[in-house]
Amino acid sequence: IVNLPDFRLAQIMIFAIEEINRSEMLLPNVSIGYQIYDTCSSRMSSMSATMGLMNGPEFAAGETLILSRTTGPFKIPVVKTNTKRMLVSLFVLYLFFFSQISHTASCECLSNRKDHPSFFRTISSDYHQSRALAYIVKHLGWSWVGAVNSDNDYGNYGMAIFLNTAQKEGICVEYSEKFYRTEPEKLKKVVDTIKKGTTKVIVAFVSFIEMGLLIDQLNILNITGLQIIGVEGWITSKSLITPKSFQVMGGSLGFALRKINLEGFSDYVVKAFWETAFPCTQIKENSSQYVINCSRYQDLLALKNYNEDVPEQRYSSHVYKAVYAVAHSLHSLLKCKEQEGCEKGLTIQPQQVVEALKKVNFTVKFGDRVWFDRTGAAVAQYEVVNWQQDSDGSLQFKSVGYYDASLPPDQQFVLNTENIIWARGQLKPSSICSESCLPGTRKAAQKGRPVCCYDCIPCAEGEISNETDSNNCKQCPGEYWSNAEKNKCVLKAVEFLSFTEVMGIVLVFFSLFGAGLTVLVAILFYRMRDTPIVKANNSELSFLLLFSLTLCFLCSLTFIGQPNEWSCMLRHTAFGITFVLCISCLLGKTIVVLMAFKATLPGSNVMKWFGPAQQRLSVVAFTLIQVLICVLWLTISPPFPHKNMKYFKEKIILECSLGSTISFWAVLGYIGLLAVLCFILAFLARTLPDNFNEAKFITFSMLIFCAVWITFIPAYVSSPGKFTVAVEIFAILASSFGLLFCIFAPKCYIILLKPYQNTKKHMMGKNIF
Fold first, then answer.
1. pLDDT value, residue 690
2. Between 20 and 30 A from 667 (CA), which of 330, 428, 621, 686?
3. Cα(371)–Cα(122) distance, rounded to whole angstroms?
4. How far, in Å, are 257, 316, 365 from residue 260 at the CA level?
5. Contact indicator for 202, 173 with CB cutoff of 8 Å
6. What is the Cα–Cα distance from 256 to 385, expressed in whole angstroms?
7. What are phi and psi of 348, to 5 degrees?
8. Rounded (5°) CA angle 374-376-382
9. Which of 314, 256, 722, 361 lies closest to 507, judged by CA?
């Protein structure tokens, strides 16, 4: 039985040798011969052929032809000389472990120059093909695949490189199984694993024989819908692509060696080769013609006029380049010159040939440059092929892209996905362990599973992810916050107590109401300024007190609205000064009551020391102290607008920073000191005999004032954001209303409702209230 692909490779070698022998430029006056042995896919046959070669007789060029049916030729050049013409014999062995140049041995294990110093190959190492498998999986958006390989050096080395590259590219492997052609139990385990697996994409780094066994088992169990990614060892094998196997393997993708048309070879295989290699007729002996018995070549002669498979031969160019590589190395060693020929009498050692092969660099007639890298391999150039069925039902290997490792990284891999027919003719399969995490979420690995298996966790508040499949959420900058979808940072909402919100409107209303009510009281007192109740306890201080209370009500408005530099400085200083002015007036009134009582005692002239002038001076003096504190505050470290992001992460509180905290508490402390002093004096004067003793009203007002501000301190410290300002305004308004009602309500009651009591007689009497 003739193995046609291997037979074509033998023809390619002979075709190249005859070309070289006819050449006047390459190895002039030197002929190359050959012997071809068949290993029959057996290690024992390989050893037998090797021994036969090493121990066999000397031969002439083109003497022996023995057909091979294995994976590829390995060549050992042997140089012989004679006196008439130099003869170089090229022995072709189908042998794995004793070789120099191979056209099919792609195993990465052979790249170790220490273990294989004399090994070269015109095919590239599987290092590139294995990496390209990972690239095509990544390019097609698959991150969850299964892996199967032959349990030999070819499969194990190739799969190891793929797995390593896949990990770097973020591809997860659900399972990685292997088997050898003589291990049916392992094959069954592999098929069971594929059947149970969740991935529909299988990377099959297996040799031709193992792939055939795997396809048979998949067919038996009717396992379909798999997207197989294959390697050059089987992806373009005509014997594998059948109507039955297509049910399982249809749509397969893989890397294949490029098809190259060797000019003249197609004609050679149907004519010149047969005339040279199989001369079945000869004219000799008594000039009569006789026919040599050709029955032993019967199988081969059936192929005599057949050449339709020639364009599909993908290894032919590599065999062609291997022969020429040996020829060029010998051309260099024999110091050949075009006109003078090659030197004679030279003894060439095998190591010299090895060193010469390392320096080979030439271009063959179909344009490929031949040279060997540091591992002894050729450059990686692949076609991407797809198993497709044409409209007429024929099954074809269609080219849908390429991979060329010699090109720049961004140009090495090209895939025309629109030309691909996927498994079972359906849409491109999806092969992921977990669905992509949308923007606004991040990936969280599932415990005990590959990194491609994850849960999608929403980003925390203030964090975003604006990309699909983000591993981490990003923290928004200080003045930004995440939107509702957590996919964009937006400016934080700026919050302050504004005039337009409900709280602000309510506080403005009570502030204006208090100011308006105070003005009405002042107008009433002005109209009744000559009546005894107004004149009692120094009416001048009463009007000054009403003025300061109006300012107290109005100063609360400076706390509302967007803080700016001027409003921040004004609000606290205005508050401090107006309240001191107010309490100074009350303190003056209290002292007046005490002094008035002392003045009624026999021989007392105390009132001359605290008359109207002294009362005004005391108010001014107490107020100037507060003014001085405020001036120092504004000079040393004034309040200023501040964006507070401590209380709320999602919004900015625009507030007035105190600047100097000591100055702020000094202002409050001074107000508190005057209030306590006023309360004590008023408390002492509350029982003095008088029909209208104002001291008890001052006592009560100071009690309310102190209670409000003592409560204010913890509320102010603990209230967040704009509520801090609201608490401060509430304290101002509450204490102001307390003073207004406690001091002036009784007087207004008499003026408006009991005018008959607003006389000197009643004022001097007792128990008006």
1. 54
2. 686
3. 8
4. 9, 8, 11
5. no
6. 7
7. -110, 125
8. 105
9. 722
**287 burial via Cβ count (<10 Å: 0-12, 13-18, 19+):** exposed
pLDDT tens, position by position, 122-180: 888 899 999 999 999 999 989 999 999 999 999 999 999 999 999 999 899 999 999 99
Strand boundaries in 227-351, DSSP class E: 227-230, 253-257, 281-284, 288-291
Determine which helix (DSSP H) or strand (DSSP E) holds 480, and give its type and residue range: strand 480-482
Single out the residue of 188, 191, 204, 252 nearest to residue 225, CA to CA.
Answer: 252
Residue with tokens 């006056």: 29
Distance CA 108, CA 83 (A): 44
Longest dimension (CA), the chain: 184
pLDDT of residue 607: 53
| Strand 201-205 versus strand 144-150 pairing type | parallel
Dihedral angle computed from the Cα positions of residues 612, 617, 622 and 628, in that order, rounded to the nearest 10 degrees: 160
pLDDT, residue 295, reads 64
- Distance between CA 658 and CA 640 in Å, rounded? 7
Report which residue type is found at 185: E
**Total residue count of the chain as it appears in this document:** 769
Q: What three-state secondary structure class fits 363?
A: strand
**Residue pointed to by tokens 């060193």:** 355
Q: Express each pLDDT in 333-360 by its tens digit.
A: 888 887 777 887 777 777 787 888 888 8
- Could you give the CA distance from residue 360 to residue 368 in angstroms, rounded to a whole number? 13
| Half-sphere exposure (Cβ direction) of 332: Cα atoms closer than 13 Å | 16
